[in-house]
Amino acid sequence: MLQGDGSRAQIVQAIGEDAQPSVKAFLGLDPEARVGFRGSLANGLKNDTKLGSNGERVPFDGVVATKNGQPYTGPQGNDADFFVVSGNLAAQLGNTPFFRNAARLDTSLNGIFVDFGGGLQSNPLLSGMNVEPATFREFTSTGIQKKLNAGDEQIYFIPGQP
Amino acid sequence: MMTHFLATVEFDAHRSLPDLAADLANACGIPLTKEESGRFDEVPAYVGNVGEVQFTLFGPAEDQEDRECVLEISYRTSLPVKQAQAATTALLQPVFDGTEMDSTGHINCSAQLSNLLVARGFGDCKPVN
To answer: A28: how many CB neighbours lie within 10 A of its CB?
Structure first.
């Protein structure tokens, strides 16, 4: 059962609209860049290490009772795992092997991402979302394909969506 | 006009992420707690801050071949560079001893952070550029 004020489809629509300034900024850096999100919001369920009180899989905005088999007392809520795919931008970020934060590409992106995260948090449709500021992970095409092959769900934003 | 310092360093692959987080906290007073929100996907991390200075210590994900831990420091402020440097702790001031912006608009302080950590006993610390 969803706990937010809207269905996941509505949430995805709302995020797609709020993401447009970020999408435009990335396309300004690389016209071939593709931007989207992955993880529990795309999948509809949190990953299978996080379970509910009856051992069931948890919806993306559900309450986690155990994590990796242990009682979970950390923060609840949900987030969106945003990403941008671009070999050119990956090369600009250089040798940062684990998590290439796209905000490092240009200082002008910070304000855009802060506004994006703030807008999502203030949207009643997206209650419980932890996204301030929004963080975009940079992937190469190979890297994002590897995630897809491993069962990842990925949703891409359509540039210019109103 | 915002001032944005960035520093990235890495440590030898033999270090475990929790031990390194504890060592950094003990040696430098950097408060690091395990990131639980999932902000960095499957990449394990410890985060903390001293005022406006944000610390993120990344460890390798399970399927990652490279095993080095990486520490990133980000300091974004509306203060001019020199005032920004003065506004941080005595420990961190030498890290933000730079004025030249790179092509991304950041002031890269990786070398200064590496120097500080080597002097504090982290001999395996190297700047990442």
So the answer is: 11
CA pair distance B112, B109, nearest whole angstrom: 5
Minimum CA–CA partner of B37 in chain A: A75
Q: A94: which chain B residues are within 8 Å (Cβ-Cβ)?
A: 128-129
Contact B70 A98 (CB under 8 A): yes
For residue range A106-121, list pLDDT tens digits in order.
988 988 999 998 888 8
**Closest Cα in chain B, distance from residue A162 (Å):** 27
pLDDT-derived band at A46 (thresholds 50, 70, 90) equals confident
Q: What is the ipTM of this complex?
A: 0.76
User: Could you give the 3-state DSSP secondary structure of residue B80?
Assistant: coil
**A125-150 CB burial, b ≥16 within 10 A, e <16:** ebeebbbbbbbbbbbbeebbeebeee
A75 CA: distance to closest CA in chain B (Å): 7
DSSP reduced 3-state for A90: helix
Cis before B31 (ω within 30)? no
Among A98, A131, A154, most B C-beta atoms within 10 A, so best to mutate, is: A98
Distance, C-alpha B104 to centroid of its chain: 18
Using DSSP's 3-state secondary structure scheme, residue B6 falls into strand
For residue A112, report the phi and psi dihedrals to the nearest 5 degrees.
Answer: -65, -40
Residue carrying structure tokens 């300004």: A28
A128 contact B CB<8A: no
